[in-house]
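assembly run, all chains below
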Amino acid sequence: MKATALYAALAAITGAAFVAALAVGYAPLGIAEIVGGLFAGAGSPSSAAIIMQDIRLPRALLGVLVGASLGLSGAALQGLLRNPLAEPGLIGASSMASLAAVIAFYFGFTALSPFILPLAGMAGALLAVALLYVLAGREGSVLTLILAGVALTSFAGALTALAINLASSAYAALEITFWLLGSLSDRTMTHVMLAGPPMLLGWALLLSCGRALDALSLGEDTARSLGISLSAARLRLVLGVALSVGAAVSVSGAIGFVGLVVPHLLRPFVGHEPGRLLLPSAIGGAALVLLADIGVRLIPALVEVKLGVLTALLGAPFFLVLVLRTRRRMG
Amino acid sequence: MTLLRAENIHMRFGAMPVLRGAGLEVARGETVGLLGPNAAGKTTLLRVLAGLVEAASGTVRFDGADVATLDAATRARRIAYLEQNAACHWPITVERLVLLGRLPHLGPWRGLGLADREAAARAMEACDLSHLATRPVTALSGGEQARAMLARALATGPELILADEPVSHLDPAHRIRVMELMRAHAATGGAALVILHDLTLAARFCDRLVLLADGEVAAAGPPAEVLTPDILAAVFGISAAFLDEGDGLMVVPRARVPQGDAGGTP
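ok done. output:
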């Protein structure tokens, strides 16, 4: 498929999903109310304006931002590690961001200001990156990087479990657990404004690494012999993942498998080239999270199924199939 | 004219010395074979020469300039490095793989142009790959993959090719083809330094040989001076048959012999 056709198809799907995300919700609104509510002036008292501008629009925008961050980070990490099974959670950024957010919950800091939670998430992801650099070193091999990521993930998981274990009340434990499940409901434009800038910065860092990732297809020595500075590329990639995923986790909780599924589905359309996979994975990630978030609103259940639960239910079997196919190819 | 000159290279991995004062020269127009037993330090020396690792001590000068001070893009355009058992981790097409050899020529905002595509097409033609251009590289045989990697190096249009066992997975005809390509590259003003284990190929296609043993140069010079019974016995611990039907030396390993203490591995 030609690149323009791929982008056109992805943009059409994402655009349609965005419109659908605005149209679908618990309050039954007609088309006139949706459009009217969306474009009503600030402070308009109509309930349609409140629903569209304060509930559905931020939710859809966050779906785009979070999905693009996860898809792009997944594609970038798979290119860096030359492994189709890599995932943003792999380097520990997601779980450390979750841990930092949970700590903010646990000590009640989140009540102080709406800024606390996003800031904690990014701090957690950046701490993960800093620790990763101490553990794996600047010249560390991919294997060291993966093992350090596994160690960080386990450590963050243990501390998160400890926080739930020691929670002062059942309600606090439930709040933490629900947040960890991952969701885009009840988010505001403040979340969009807080998470957007670091995500965009992260995207720019990741998208600048296309050629380094292409060269890395041939291994580290050959990439360096082609004039690629691996230490610089690695720094940009890890920082880019930390910024975009840290910000994403802090506003949505952990939404797994998007970074795994999207690059895998799109890879055949870009000739399996890691550099050309980056931008389509960002757009595809946005589409997938928007569609999944429409899905949780359409599933008839007494309480809304959390977005992270749905992506895990769909993503985990996909991951298993991928592992089996990879093993068959290697063996 | 000397293109590459390495002197007194020392290198150790942990406490184990790998290179102990090795040095060599490659002149423009030359195809030089780098020979030696396993673990003699050939690959390490080649990586030092390519600027991929820094030696503990010693100098590597490329066209008069210290290799370490060349900026990465310039070095990548002028020196191509062909990794041992080079593999591609994704099933990209042969053409796109060969085009990766043009990366050092691309500016930060410039994509592939006509000149890049022509260079890649010439390299694929030379390596007998044109009919495989659209095939995924991972679906090729080992020999075809090795040729694709060589085409990638040729597509860069380098002055010096540093190749680590480029013929080890090839059938006899393609081994000869690869060595012919190295010679053709050298004949156009470039140079090639090739790690080889095939003594006959080394004797017939290289202008000079450098024989490495235990991180030191055990012998260097024209093939007939390096591939002698005494040196082969001391360094490789083998006896060999030497044949010459008037069109170049052939060296066929015959049997292992007890090794002397003249630099051979135990």
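The first strand of chain B starts at residue 2 and ends at 13.

Chain B touches chain A at residues 47, 50, 52, 72-73, 75-77, 79-81, 83, 86-93, 96-97, 100-101, 103-104, 106, 136, 149, 152, 156 (CB under 8 Å).

not gonna interpret more than that til we talk
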